[in-house]
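Technical annex, item 7. During the second reporting period the consortium partners agreed on a shared format for inverse folding records so that results from different sites could be compared directly. Each record opens with the tokenized structure and is followed by the designed sequence. A conforming record, contributed by the partner at site C, is shown below for reference.
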């Protein structure tokens, strides 16, 4: 099957532009310096996440704080490498008054240069961003938990740059029948178990915790995989053979790597697995461990 040149490049979206900033910068530079280490025709399209303390954030609880200078530096360095900063402003519990939050508005102001992106879930926040910050690309978040093809097709018809699908679609016949594969973003290595019945509930709890600046209060979830190699056992896991084979040939070119708020060795292992050729993985892992100061 012939694929247009526009779809040949694999775009990776990596976690997290704040906690993994130095690692992402290092890999982006090494892709240019040592292209033979990496799979052909790949790029880091965006780094997703939030600056700690953002009440609009969703998906993972990210507490803490940072300065405007830290924001400006991160945005500048990533954009200079053609990597978009992608805000995960996907808290599903937002009300009108939350739109007045000065910190989250500052985050948008710092990145308001036409190079960056916002993931959304809340219709209230989406409308606010589209009107107040039209320079941002707006993406539909997996936290909407769309679980049927009809809902996905309706979402793809809307004005979103990309639609991030629930990982339950991975490796299914329904996925390959979806029409706008170029607008689809797939989570390659979701740490949540396949078809978890508590996923939406978990996102709601995360949203509430973010609003309250509190640690997450949620019963222990046995559906979370604790290790990258356990994740590989999931039915939804997309292998490199499949990604660079049938997925790219079918027209899928946008892949999110899960791992925000996870231990760094998990994040590193997933980056190495998906971006680096097998014969160079040990070398690249050693380089990162030796040279990157997280």
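Designed sequence (site C submission):
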């Amino acid at each position: 099957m012939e694929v247009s040149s526009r779809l040949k490049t694999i775009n990776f979206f990596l976690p997290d532009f704040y906690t993994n900033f130095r690692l992402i910068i290092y890999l982006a530079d090494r892709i240019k310096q040592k292209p033979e280490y990496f799979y052909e025709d790949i790029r880091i399209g965006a780094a997703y996440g939030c600056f700690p303390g953002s009440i609009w954030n969703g998906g993972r609880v990210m507490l803490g704080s940072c300065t405007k200078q830290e924001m400006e530096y991160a945005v500048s360095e990533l954009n200079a490498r053609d990597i978009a900063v992608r805000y995960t402003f996907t808290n599903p519990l937002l009300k009108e008054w939350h739109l007045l939050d000065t910190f989250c508005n500052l985050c948008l102001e710092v990145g308001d240069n036409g190079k960056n992106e916002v993931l959304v879930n809340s219709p209230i926040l989406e409308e606010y961003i589209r009107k107040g910050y039209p320079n941002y690309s707006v993406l539909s978040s997996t936290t909407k938990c769309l679980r049927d093809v009809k809902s996905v097709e309706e979402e793809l018809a809307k004005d979103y740059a990309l639609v991030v699908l629930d990982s339950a679609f991975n490796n299914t016949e329904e996925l390959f029948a979806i029409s706008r594969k170029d607008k689809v973003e797939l989570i390659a290595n979701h740490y949540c178990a396949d078809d978890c019945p508590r996923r939406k509930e978990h996102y709601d709890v995360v949203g509430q915790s973010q609003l309250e600046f509190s640690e997450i209060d949620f019963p222990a979830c046995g559906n979370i995989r604790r290790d990258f190699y356990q994740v590989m056992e999931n039915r939804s896991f997309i292998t490199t053979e499949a990604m660079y084979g049938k997925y790219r040939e079918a027209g899928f070119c946008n892949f999110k790597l899960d791992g925000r708020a996870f231990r760094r060795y998990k994040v590193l292992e997933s980056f190495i697995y998906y971006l680096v050729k097998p014969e160079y993985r040990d070398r690249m892992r050693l380089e990162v461990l030796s040279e990157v100061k997280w």
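The chain has a mean pLDDT of 92. Residues 5-291 form a domain with the TIM Barrel fold (CATH 3.20.20). All partners now use this format for quarterly exchanges.
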